[in-house]
Amino acid sequence: MNDLQRYFQNNRKNRINKWMHYFDIYDRYFSRYRGTDVHILEIGVYHGGSLQMWKEYFGGKARLFGVDIDPYCRNFEEDQISILIGDQSDRDFLRQLIQQVPRVDILIDDGGHTMRQQITTFEVLFPHVSSTGVYLCEDLHTSYWRTYGGGYHRKSSFIEYSKNLIDELHAWHSEDKSRLSVSQFTMSASAMHYYNSILVVEKQSMEAPVSRITGVATLPTEPPPPTLSFRDRLLGRFDWLFERKHI
């Protein structure tokens, strides 16, 4: 049990609602920030309990910013914790938010979980996350719920949206530049990690990958496999394939 789960299990302060497998994921990507002046933006304040948990976990140098649409959440402000009120699906509000929170090392999207909210938040705020920061969107299972705008293979879901980011991550290798070219995401994201209901994107300034060969060649050069004629393909004459397979 890591420190986050231990805090959760013993919590007697403000309410926290989390899936139990989240704690190992949090600790895996957040532990390097403990004891630093990390700036954390959490969208979705709820009862304020998770902000108190982060405060305990990261230590006295951390600054925490909670965002929620409910004005009552201002009551959860305390030392190290600031609360900002607004709608995460409103691009104008998110752009104003960037001015109020000049630095974000960790962004946790635990807000309304609708497709519009998750996609809008990512598009506006991901570029604002520090160049070596972490973007974490949780409760992705709503991508499979129609009441949240999701649905299996529904193009408007955040899951389907994020699958396109996998292509962008590999855009350096694209031969069809008109359809897939290097983007700002390609140049600023080093890795994407999918877990049950969570996507973690790690940021890092990226350049085109370079491949090199060192050492001495030890394998003899192999001739290319023979090309089958159209007639052979029709007759199903693939004996050479089976012979090579069992060499």
Give, in spatial order, the strands making up the sheet with the most strands.
3-2-1-4-5-7-6
What's the CATH class, please?
Answer: Alpha Beta
Strand and helix order? HHEHEEHEHEHHEEHH
Cα-atom radius of gyration: 24 Å
Q: What share of the residues lie within helices?
A: 25-40%
Number of domains: 1
Q: Which structural category fits the helices and strands?
A: alpha/beta
What would the average pLDDT be, to the nearest integer? 92
Major β-sheet profile: 7 strands, mixed
Percent range for β-strand residues: 15-25%
* CATH architectural type: 3-Layer(aba) Sandwich
Shape, principal axes of CA atoms: globular
Q: What's the N-to-C terminus distance? A: 50 Å
At the fold tier of CATH, the topology name is Rossmann fold
Low-confidence stretches: none
Q: Spell out the CATH superfamily.
A: Vaccinia Virus protein VP39
Count the strands?
Answer: 7
Number of helices: 9
